[in-house]
Each structure stands twice: as C-alpha cells, then as structure tokens.
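Hello,

Following up on my earlier ticket. Below are the two sequence lines again, exactly as submitted.
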Amino acid sequence: EIVLTQSPGTLSLSPGETVTLSCRASESIDRDYLAWYQQRPGRAPRLLIFSAYARATGVPGRFSGSGSGTDFSLTISGLEPEDFAIYYCQQYGRSPSLTFGGGTKVEMK
Amino acid sequence: QVQLQESGPGLVTPSATLSLTCDVSGGAISAGFHWGWLRQPPGKGLEWIGAVYHSGISYYNTSLKLRAAISVDTSKNQFSLRLNSVTAADTAVYYCARHHKGGTTGFFYMDVWGKGTTVTVSS
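Thanks for your patience. The regenerated structure is below:
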C-alpha cells in the first residue's frame, strides 16, 4: 500500500498569502494519479485537482497542482477567506488501491 | 448537476449491521460511473470503504476484512452500504461519492460527494 505523507500538519497564514502544500508518496505513483481535496469545517470534501495538475470543474485558478513520481504539491496563490480549510491528497495510481494523506490544515493567523 | 444524499440510522448498536442508502439525483446511476462510500471518524482523516458499478461489480478496502457490502438499485437510482459486526471504531461521518476511474490501470478519485451522515455505534 502506498503511504502518503503530508507536510506540514498545520500552517498559520494571512489572507492574500501564497502557500504550497506538500504530499510525498512512499513509492512512485503510476501515471501521476494524484488528487487533492479541500474540506471546510463541517462540510464534505471537495475535489480540487486530479491527475496531479488538472483542475476540477468550477475550481478557481488560484489553485494549482504540480509534481510527479513521489513528490507532489498544491499551491494556493493568494489565500481567500474561504480557503482556510484542511487539504488532503489521495493516490489512485494502481487498481485496486487508493489511499489518503493525513491532511494539512491551513488556518488563519 | 448530479447530487447525492445519504440516509440511514444515526445510532447503531455494537455487533449489529450498519445500513445506509445514497440517493442519486440529476443523473442516472447507470451513466457509466462507479459509486461508493467513504468515512471519517471524529477528528480524523478520510478512509475509503468501497465502490460499485451499476452492473454490480464491486471493490472494497481490504482493511475492513470483508465486513462491507455495497449494492446498487438502478430502478431507484440509489446505492447502499451494509457494514456488519460494527464496533465503536466504526463511529464516523459516512459519505457517499461518485467515483471516477483513472484510465484503464488506475483506481478511483471522487468528484461528487454527499453532505455526509453521522453514525454513532453505541449501546
């Protein structure tokens, strides 16, 4: 099973700042099949990125994904108040396995 | 626009079977996607439970040790989860979600989620 490690656990930032979240895999993810989700308090997760860099429908352009192999990133360029949330990465490179990272919380300073 | 809505008991007795249903609206469940369940224990991360295709072919997280079963009812445009022999460790928010398959060799990511339903296992 591929283990995903997200770092850091928590980030304290101000609106307008740019942040890059990290997701590292224990082994290479086939075809860079990695997704990112946002979860606001009390809400269901929301798909932001799939296939490492493809934005899901309706996701603002300030969210961008990058990376390949074992190292992936999610960048939020100019934090909006609604972006303060927990972000999870998820790999789906090899059937029949999918796993999530432990999440990074982006909190308001 | 496809929407999902979970329903089922909020309280389940230990050793009993947890049963949840997900109603799909705004699209046909037989439209070519997979449909499945995830859960999130209080204060913890996400865990994938399993998924089913409208043909009935299903996939499960092996960590659940065969306790889970997901079925689909195309006539009602809904799918269901049964999880037997529950313990307090099964207390969580349960989400149903539409699953997208990553090509021919990849597995799933989830692009549409229900709002979630809280299930507590307690006597």
